[in-house]
Specification:
single chain; Leucine-rich repeat, LRR (right-handed beta-alpha superhelix); Phosphorylase Kinase, domain 1; seven-stranded mixed sheet; 11 helices
Length: 493
């Protein structure tokens, strides 16, 4: 019996020795070849020395699993690596969990084959000189819990696809050149977030407002909690040259007496203005006479209500109009509209100035849901709410192929907004450039009309506004000469 027990003991010890010997001799050959290819193609300082004849698991910065079957961790911080990461090197290490190449001088873009590192949990690439857009290959590493791309030269926007990294606890993108608006990063486990010192703009999404202000500082056009609140509606554009304050008056005194030539010129100019005004009034009267036979009986007041008020409140004050605050926050949509947002969504939208006119500024507003509209913010317009709504009702009924439809409006004592569709195919700048004569004719008539008849200011302004849209198509069809454009526009209005 003792002989059998001794034999089993010898067999067990031999088996353990064989296992131990096999563990020592195992080698992650594929990972070793990938690392040697990386080292041979990337310039580096002499302190990084890997012996090709030794086991890869004994190299500096390398950590293998317990069975030494694959490389678990690659940490090479501050070892003097220079240049770009060559493809088909580190991207072949499919079992890698931790990759740290921070504080080197690596440059260029992140290779696309980094998407093969599907088991990667931590990626540290900060303090290098990487360039290009946010690496799209990184958004496929769904097991990442820590991503640090700070202190590089990345550009472009931060993609919404970072929400694919559902296990992410830290996202550090500070000290880069990222631009555009911040996406709504809705990651439940995210506890460390930083995008400071970039070129981001617009309002901060509510899901990110829980992070401190230091996480967003250094972005001059970023606003909203926890930073200072955004300006009402949209940022004011840069002042036009006509609004620049005049310099100090000249010390040279000019004569206050008018010469005979000046008096004659003033008289002739006044006569011309009166004649042009008379012609314009005749044109308006003729148009009014043409439109009379086409008039239809007015429908009941309930049937003429074409605006649908946006909002969900059903309180008594909202229905009766007793609450001044509710009255001030109503965004009114026209019948048949295609949008479903409210005033709060418009307030949180990121915006950029499209142009500035004599009565207001136009903005391109991009809502958080992705909808893009054009908002016209009127200024120096003093009119009662009833008159404003009457004009809006008339404008909302205009349906024409050459006119951008008015989708909604907002009225309060201090703010008046018009919402219309955004046309993404370009601007009228190329068409209007060099065609100042056509534009001057309309602006001249409109200015005279608004000056002498303030109550009809809205009517004149909107016809002048629609001219821009109509003119772009008229130029292509009939040429951009003054007579053609004026004739087409008169027939249109």
């Amino acid at each position: 019996m003792s002989l059998i027990f001794d034999s089993l003991t010898v067999i067990l010890v031999s088996f353990l020795l064989l296992l131990s010997h096999g563990r020592v001799d195992s080698e992650p050959v594929q990972d070793k070849q990938a690392l040697l290819a990386f080292l041979s193609k990337v310039p580096h300082e002499n302190r990084l020395q890997w012996n090709a004849s030794a086991s890869v698991c004994t190299w500096f910065g390398i950590e293998c699993d317990a069975n030494q079957s694959f490389v678990f961790s690659l940490r090479l911080p501050g070892v003097g690596l220079i240049g770009s990461i060559p493809p088909n090197t580190l991207g072949r290490m499919s079992q890698l969990r931790v990759l740290s190449l921070r504080s080197n001088r690596l440059s260029g873009e992140i290779p696309s084959d980094f998407s093969n590192l599907t088991l990667l949990r931590s990626l540290y690439l900060q303090n290098n000189v990487f360039t290009g857009d946010f690496p799209p290959s990184l958004t496929r590493l769904t097991r990442l819990s820590r991503l640090d791309l700070s202190s590089n030269n990345f550009t472009g926007s931060i993609p919404f696809s970072v929400n694919n990294l559902t296990h992410l606890t830290g996202l550090l993108l500070q000290n880069n050149h990222f631009a555009g608006s911040l996406p709504s990063v809705s990651l439940l486990n995210l506890t460390d977030f930083n995008v400071s010192n970039n070129n981001l703009n617009g309002s901060i999404p509510q899901v990110l407002a829980k992070f401190p202000a230091a996480s967003f500082s250094g972005n001059l056009q970023l606003c909203g909690r926890p930073l200072p609140p955004c300006n009402p509606f949209f940022p004011s554009p840069a002042p036009s040259p006509s609004e620049i304050p005049p310099g100090p008056p000249s010390s040279h005194k000019k004569s206050r007496k008018l010469s005979t030539v000046a008096i004659v010129l003033i008289a002739v100019g006044s006569a011309l203005v009166a004649l042009l005004l008379l012609l314009f009034l005749i044109l308006c009267l003729r148009r009014k006479q043409r439109s009379r036979p086409a008039k239809t009986p007015k429908p009941p007041a309930a049937a003429r209500a074409v605006a649908v008020e946006a909002g969900t409140s059903s309180s008594k004050d909202d229905i009766t109009g007793g609450s001044a605050e509710a009255e001030r926050n109503k965004l009114v949509f026209f019948e048949g509209g295609i949008y479903s947002f409210d005033l709060e969504d418009l307030l949180r939208a990121s915006a950029e100035v499209l142009g500035k006119g004599s009565v207001g500024t136009s903005y391109k507003a991009v809502l958080e849901e992705g909808t893009t509209v054009v908002v016209k913010r009127l200024k120096d317009v003093v009119v009662t709410k009833r008159d404003f709504e009457t004009q809006m009702e008339v404008l909302g009924k205009i349906k024409h192929d050459n006119v951008v439809p008015l989708r909604a409006y907002y009225y309060s004592k201090d703010e008046k907004l018009l919402v219309s569709d955004f046309m993404p195919v370009g601007s009228l700048s190329a068409l209007l450039h060099g065609m100042v004569s056509d534009f001057f004719i309309y602006s001249f008539f409109c200015s005279i009309f608004a000056f002498f008849f303030p109550l009809l200011f809205f009517h004149c302004y909107f016809e002048f506004f629609f001219f821009f849209v109509f003119y772009s198509k008229s130029c292509f069809q009939n040429g951009c000469g003054s007579l053609n454009a004026v004739k087409d526009f008169i027939q249109f209005v």
